[in-house]
Amino acid sequence: MAQSEPSRAPRPPALTRFAPVPEVPGWLRGIYAGLCLYLFLSALNIMGTGLGTFGGESDWLTRAFAYGENPFIALMGAVIVTALVQSSSFTTALIVTLVATGEMTLGTAVFAIMGANIGTSVTAVIVALANLRIRRNFRRSFTAALIHDLFNLLTVAVLFPLEWLSGALHESGRGVLTRAANSIADLIGMQEVANPSSPVKVITRPMVNLFEWVAGLFTPTTTAEGLVMAAMGLILMFIALVFMVKNLRGAVLRHMDGLFRTYFFRTDIRAYGVGAFSTVAVQSSTITTSLMVPLAGAGVVPMKRLLPFMMGSNLGTTVTSVLAATANPVSAAVTVALVHVLFNLVGTAIWYPLRAIPMRIANWYGRLASNSPRYAFFFLFLIFLIIPVVGIAITEVIIHL
Question: Which residue spans traverse the membrane (predicted)?
Answer without folding.
Answer: 31-51, 72-100, 106-130, 142-162, 226-245, 332-354, 375-399
